[in-house]
Write a structure and sequence with these properties.
heterodimer, A: about 1050 residues, alpha+beta, six-stranded antiparallel sheet, four-stranded antiparallel sheet, about 50% helix, elongated, B: about 375 residues, mainly beta, Methylamine Dehydrogenase, Chain H, five-stranded antiparallel sheet, WD_REPEATS_REGION domain-containing protein (chain B), nucleus (chain B)
Chain lengths: ~1050, ~375
């Protein structure tokens, strides 16, 4: 049964016709509850039964919203009642929290609250009445307002009665009974203003006539005043009698009207005193009555009979007829017959008074008349059945739960649980039930949700969570209510969310946040959606939003950058960790921010982390890699470390394997990547430990550099070789495969059975090539001490010294090319270093005359000091451009020239060896170090002490590569000069062979002026500990057991070295 | 704190209040707007007499029904036009003074007491959004002509009230439109809901958003790109309001979730000068006392309105919050539901609450 919105709740039993225009007989209707209570949407269902109301409603095109319990919605006065009473309610709760019905102060405070409630009701009732009077042009509204006003007035009367009987703090005191009676009489008088009206009429008419007693209401007023205990007023009225001063009877009656008045004192003494005084006075009345003093005056006699407490007088029809209600009669009787009796008399004598009252009103039965005030409720109160009273009142008031909810709450705080008339669950349960109903009744209007929630705060059992209970069947607990309040705006959502949080309903709070986030997401407000999803702590939602961000990005780099420009991502802090996707987005934004802030290394770090953590969807990898391109291509600065670049390469590799990106774009990235890797390794003095992971990375880099610049590839291959050498056999197979795959680079040299060998593990490899952009091999004498001084300046100028017993090296055809390219060049490539561009093949052979080399070196020593390239006092500019002078160093040093004109050195350990090596400059610019056969190779390897080469890029500083005995685990091997002494000092010590001199481990050194970095001096030396190893005769065998580690160490001129 | 506090139930949830002018403290006029009331949403113009708690005070001067929640309400300080941001996303200007042309000053320099509410022209809303901008969520007024408004979608618009008096001389043709003299771009987009805005000076404005960012905008370059962004470290806390100091424009107070009150020095790079956590409720509004600049008023969702005395410990002579500031409660402790908004005059304060109360307090200077 629906009630239209216009219908008030006053006729809950009446039916309301719904104005559905298109409904005809037999058509199906559908209905859907609103999210909050007290609203049902009715619609005409489509012919085909649809399970979804929304669909059905859409088909009919008409929706009708039906609300009920709307009295709080449209009437401002009742809204005020709801809001204002809520504050009083909260005060009650505070008082109740302190103590339930214990201290007198609390009770007094609760009494004040009760009076506030009543004042509010009274105020609203009069305001409603005023509004009703003002709304003359809207009779329906006026009737509603008047109705509400009367209802409130009646409620207030009942409340007052409850207040007197149950709320006032003197309830339990015996001395309070007469006082309570007086108050009850007062209560009855207050709500029965009849005598006052009559008196007013009477006095008005008295002005016209000199005998007011002739007025029909004169005696009625007098009786009523006596019945209400207002004897003073009665005496005053009686004094208006025209014969008042003359008739003795009247004088006597006026004297008798001086009824003793009880004044409340908190002891039983005063009750007894009053009782005595009252008895004496009434005895006096009776004596005079029995003496027949008033017999001549029946009206006066009746008055005195009432004063005497004569039961018959109270039963007289004219007296009963004066009373508006049976309880008025009852209270009057009690007041005049037994004013000090206990309150139990109320309940005891009530039936009699009721019967008496109804005797003269045969038509009036229970339930007739004024709903609330017909006596049933008052009777229950007099009987002390408060619980029953509340239940009945709730029934009488229908959907108006305001009264019972607040009253029950007040009584709960005043009385605790010890109230009669409550069945099952005690008083608290009834209170809670009413509060639940009241809060539920407020939900028809969204504006009242805060109040509704606030009331539910104080329903400890069913207010918060769903609990199976007959009481809570109709009510909505907070956790359900708060999630159903429609969050139309962000601000309202904030309030709902805060309300959930304040009540510890975190699930509801999350639901609210999720709802708002979803709505924002649907609208496309990603920032808002994100803030709410974070509040909801919902990883899936956050991921969905991140997806939306990325979807907007479209997978391309620009779009991604656009997505990252959303500064909402800036301050996510730990919230970003809710979802991988969001974390990626934030990190990606961080990457962009850092790039734009110029923090390139940090940006590189972020990018590498992103790609290595695999938190990115794969479709964005290429975008990210492409974003890294500008960083990769920075020539002057190695932004990425090699480790980071390997991460990038792994990602690229996966992309390639997944085949989910355009190959040409991958190739671009790949080229940059391999180039950057090479530079990074150079910058870092890349050192491979035997960790196979780094080896694998290197191999990967090598493999994926296949389509990149072959120079880079060669460089990488070289690295792989070294790493493989150090890592051992387990990776050699892979390398072989890799090398085979890249055989086209090896083609020109495939006739060379073994070009280069890096340790015993690589023996099976064929053909293997070491591609070197620039190479310097330094052949070291087995007598390192005399290495430097036995260096004839001219020997090094020999471009190639074929080994006597060695196999002849076939001159490759490109030798001619070289010659053709450098027609002016002398056979010593050193001299024309800088002009020696183009393809070239250089053969180098050490001079086999060891002793003469040694002696020459010794002889050369003084000259060497004057050698400008080695002279520390020489200006660095001079050093820089004259690398050719290096060739004047030890005779067993074989120098080569490469494209950029820098001489590469080989340093062999044993210059007695006949090692034939060729460094062949390939068309692509790389230089290949080639050996004719394996024996040569082994020999070379066993004796190779150091190779140093410059890089292909002149901008980069020169590098030195050393072969060294691997360091013990966990110990970094230092092979280079690091002391503060000058090179002369070191040299002097080396030459002096004085064991007493402190040896700092440096046995050999070399100055290498770098072309690309003018004035920078490179020092190279060997540490003592592995020099010992080098000195061993069986070093070749020895080295087979070891892994040879190449250290790439970059040393610039030490700080403070001004030479 | 306040020498006298009067409360009136207004039978609607007070969403916003605005004081007509700082100079009418003796008989202040307050505009109060409701929300969540559906079709019966309204803006009321209420006049207080010299005696706050006198019978019939405040007096209802005018009422205007709105078709949406009143989300923002600001009087312009010069012409007393009332700018209203609605939940429907519309921005509406209303004349409150005599039947003259809106925005015209009567020349005597005296401000008229607002006595009516008359909408000027049509409401305005940004038309560019495909998804709707959501409610107006922030509003600041500069000089009687310019309003900076923020929407829930993050849309930021600098509007001006343009008067187009047609031939008939009907002044209702005044309209709001994006300000032409407001930099290159008068329309901008924040990343999320703009929750508060204020003008710093003629050329700068600040906004706060629900992501917890305080953004500075240079109005000369327009709203296309913010100038600077300041945040509180840690997880984001939605900010709800921002107000600049009346005398030190570089000083901005913002209120955020979790009762977090921040004082920012805009000359600093990133972080606030001082942060204080008041209580659990969100800070709904902050206002500096218009004259006594070291007095900060803060209302919270927990139902309190505090007056906080700022210390001078901030660098450069600017004020700062001490770690444990002394909070002086202005409203009675019985207030439990959120204080949605308040407005502040020299000696007068008016606050609107969620439980339909309109507080008025006199003697708010410490």
């Amino acid at each position: 049964m629906f009630q239209g919105e216009a219908a008030s709740s006053q006729q809950p039993e009446s039916s309301v016709a719904l104005p559905l225009p298109t409904v005809e007989a037999g058509c199906q209707l559908g209905a859907a509850w609103s999210s909050l209570g007290a609203v049902v949407t009715v619609f005409k269902a489509a012919a085909a039964a649809s399970s979804r109301p929304a669909v059905a409603a859409a088909s009919s095109g008409h929706l009708l919203e039906c609300r009920w319990s709307t009295e709080f919605h449209d009437c401002d006065t009742l809204r005020r009642l709801a809001a204002e009473s809520h504050r009083v309610f909260l005060t009650c709760q505070r008082l109740g929290d302190a103590s339930v019905g214990s201290s007198a102060e609390t009770r007094e405070a609760l009494l004040r609250c009760s009076k506030e409630y009543r004042a509010l009701m009274h105020d609203c009732a009069s305001e409603l009445m005023d509004s009703a009077a003002a709304a003359t042009d809207e009779p329906e509204a006026a009737a509603f307002l008047e109705n509400q006003s009367q209802l409130l007035a009646a409620c207030q009367i009942l409340w007052h009665l409850v207040e007197i009987l149950w709320v006032a703090p003197r309830y339990q005191s015996a001395a309070a009974a007469p006082q309570i009676l007086l108050e009850l009489v007062d209560w009855a008088r207050l709500h029965c203003p009849q005598p006052d009206r009559w008196i007013a009429e009477l006095l008005e008419s008295a002005n016209a006539t000199d005998a007011p007693e002739l007025h029909q209401r004169f005696w009625d007023s007098l009786y009523l005043l006596v019945l209400q205990g207002r004897t003073v007023d009665a005496r005053n009225l009686l004094s208006q009698h025209s014969q008042a001063g003359r008739q003795q009877q009247l004088k006597d009656a006026m004297e008798l009207l001086n009824m003793p008045k009880y004044s409340f004192v908190r002891d039983s003494q005063s009750v007894r005193k009053f009782d005595v005084a009252h008895c004496l006075w009434q005895k006096d009345v009776r004596v005079r009555l029995e003496a027949g003093l008033f017999a001549a005056h029946p009206q006066l006699e009746l008055l005195v009979e009432l004063l005497a407490g004569d039961e018959d007088a109270f039963a007289r029809p004219e007296i009963v007829g004066l009373c508006d209600s049976w309880y008025q009669l009852l209270l009057a009787r009690l007041l005049l017959t037994n004013p000090t009796g206990s309150l139990d008399c109320l309940g005891r004598e009530a039936p009699e008074a009721e019967a008496l009252y109804k005797r003269d009103r045969p038509s009036q039965r229970d339930g007739d008349g004024d709903g609330l005030l017909d006596g049933v409720l008052v009777r229950l109160l007099f009987d002390g059945q408060v619980g029953q009273f509340l239940a009945e009142a709730a029934g009488c008031l229908g959907s108006n739960w305001w009264f019972v909810a607040h009253l029950a709450d007040l009584l709960h705080h005043c009385l605790g649980g010890e109230v009669g008339g409550c069945s099952g669950g005690g008083f608290g349960a009834i209170r809670e039930h009413f509060l639940l109903e009241y809060s539920h009744s407020m939900l028809g209007r969204a504006a009242l949700w805060q109040l509704a929630v606030s009331y539910l705060d104080y329903c400890s059992n069913y207010g918060r969570h769903y609990q199976p209970s007959p009481h809570a069947a109709a009510a909505t607990p907070q956790e359900a209510l708060l999630v159903r309040v429609p969050p139309e705006s962000q601000r309202k959502a904030e309030q709902i969310f805060a309300a959930c949080h304040a009540r510890g309903l975190l699930d509801s709070a999350n639901t609210v946040a999720r709802t708002v986030a979803r709505r924002a997401l649907d609208k496309g407000c990603l920032g808002n959606a994100l803030t709410w999803a974070i509040r909801a702590r919902d990883p899936r939602l956050v991921a969905a939003i991140a997806d939306k961000f990325l979807l907007g990005a479209g997978g391309d780099s620009a779009g991604l950058a656009r997505a990252a420009s959303a500064d909402a991502l800036d301050c996510l802090a730990t919230s970003a960790l809710l979802s991988n996707r969001m974390a990626f987005l934030c990190q990606y934004k961080l990457f962009h921010d850092r790039v734009s802030a110029g923090q390139l290394a940090e940006a590189a770090d972020v990018a590498a982390q992103l790609l290595s953590s695999r938190m990115i969807p794969r479709r964005y990898w290429l975008s990210l890699l492409q974003d890294c391109l500008p960083l990769l291509e920075l020539r002057h600065q190695a932004v990425f470390t090699s480790a980071q670049l390997f991460d990038l390469m792994h990602a690229l590799a996966e992309l390639r394997q997944a085949d989910c990106a355009p190959a040409e774009r991958l190739s671009v990235v790949q080229a940059s990547l391999s180039d950057a890797l090479r530079r990074a390794m150079i910058d870092e003095n890349f050192h491979y430990s035997s960790a196979s992971s780094s080896l694998m990375e290197l191999m990967l880099a090598c493999r994926f550099s296949a389509s990149a610049n072959s120079r880079h590839r060669s460089w990488l291959l070289r690295r792989v070789s070294m790493a493989t050498h150090s890592a051992g056999a387990e990776s050699s197979d892979w390398f072989r495969g890799s090398a085979g795959a890249s055989s086209r680079f090896l083609t020109p040299f495939s006739s060379w059975t073994r070009v280069w060998k890096l340790g015993s593990t690589m023996y099976s490899m064929k053909p293997a090539t070491l591609y070197i952009d620039r190479l310097e091999l330094i052949i070291k004498s087995d007598n390192p001490v005399c290495m430097d001084k036995s260096k004839p300046p001219d020997t090094a100028r020999e471009p190639s010294i074929p080994a006597a017993g060695g196999p002849s090296i076939p001159q490759p055809s490109n030798m001619e090319v070289d010659s053709a390219a450098n027609p002016a060049e002398t056979p010593t490539p050193r001299s024309g270093a800088s002009q020696n561009d183009g393809f070239q093949v250089v053969n180098r052979r050490r001079r086999d005359d060891k002793t003469s080399a040694g002696s020459e070196r010794k002889r050369q020593q003084p000259d060497e000091r004057t050698d400008p390239s080695l002279d520390p006092k020489r200006p660095k500019e001079a050093n820089a451009g004259t690398y050719a002078k290096v060739a004047t160093e030890p005779k067993f040093k074989i120098c080569m020239e490469a494209s950029i004109g820098m001489i590469d050195d080989f340093l062999w350990e044993n210059d007695a060896l006949d090692i034939k090596v060729e460094a062949i400059r390939n068309a692509n610019g790389s230089v290949i170090l080639a050996f004719k056969d394996e024996a040569q190779l082994e020999l070379a390897l066993a004796n190779l002490v150091s190779i140093s080469w410059d890089t292909c890029t002149t901008a980069l500083p020169p590098l030195v590569v050393e072969r060294a005995r691997p360091p013990p685990p966990c110990r970094r091997y230092r092979a280079f000069y690091s002391g503060s002494r000058s090179i002369e000092e070191i040299r002097a010590r080396l030459l002096s062979k004085n064991p007493d001199l402190p040896q700092d481990g440096i046995r050999a050194f070399k100055e290498v002026p770098a072309k690309g970095a003018p004035g920078k001096t490179l020092y190279m030396g060997f540490s003592a500990e592995w020099e010992d190893a080098l000195k061993k005769d069986d070093f070749a065998a020895y080295i087979g057991a070891w892994k040879i580690v190449f250290h790439l160490l970059l040393r610039r001129r030490p700080a403070g070295d001004r030479r | 704190m306040a020498s006298k506090v009067a409360a009136k139930f207004v039978s609607y949830r007070v969403s916003q209040v605005a004081l007509a002018s700082h100079y009418t403290d003796k008989e202040p006029v307050v505009a109060a707007g409701s929300w969540d009331e559906g079709p019966s949403n309204r803006i009321q113009l209420l006049g207080y007499g010299p005696e706050l708690d006198a019978e019939g005070s405040p007096q209802l001067i005018a009422v205007h029904r709105c078709h949406g929640d009143v989300m923002c309400l600001r009087f312009d300080p010069i012409y007393q036009n009332l700018f209203v941001g609605l939940g429907t996303g519309e921005l509406v200007a209303m004349a409150t003074t005599a039947e003259e042309e809106p925005g015209s000053n009567n020349g005597s320099g005296e401000r008229q007491r607002p006595r009516l509410l008359r909408q000027l022209g049509q409401g305005w809303r940004p038309s560019t959004d495909s998804f709707g901008s959501g409610a107006v969520s922030a509003l600041a007024i500069r000089d009687g002509w310019h309003a900076l408004a923020g929407w829930e979608s993050g849309r930021l618009v600098c509007c001006s009230l343009a008067v187009e008096v047609p031939d008939g001389g009907c002044s209702d043709a005044a309209t709001l439109r994006p300000a032409s003299g407001c930099g290159r771009e008068s329309v901008g987009l924040d990343s999320c809901c703009v929750t508060g805005a204020d003008f710093i000076d003629q050329n700068a404005a600040c906004t706060v958003n629900s992501m917890g960012q305080l953004k500075l905008w240079d109005l000369r370059t327009g709203l296309g790109q913010y100038d600077k962004v300041l945040t509180v470290a840690g997880d984001p806390k939605a900010m709800h309001c921002a107000r600049r100091h009346p005398a030190q424009p570089h000083l901005v107070a913002t209120g955020a979730s979790g009762g977090c009150l921040c004082l920012w020095d805009l000359r600093q790079e990133k972080f606030p000068v001082s942060i204080v956590e008041l209580d659990d409720g969100h800070v709904t509004q902050v206002e500096f006392h218009p004259v006594q600049g070291d007095l900060l008023f803060v209302s919270t969702m927990a139902g309190q309105l505090y007056a906080i005395k700022l210390s001078d410990s901030g660098g450069g002579g600017s004020a700062a919050l001490t770690d444990n500031p002394h909070l002086t409660a202005v409203l009675p402790a019985s207030q439990k539901l959120p204080v949605n908004s308040f407005c502040l005059g020299e000696d007068f304060l008016c606050a609107g609450t969620e439980d339909e109360l309109l507080y008025a307090a006199a003697g708010v200077c410490l």
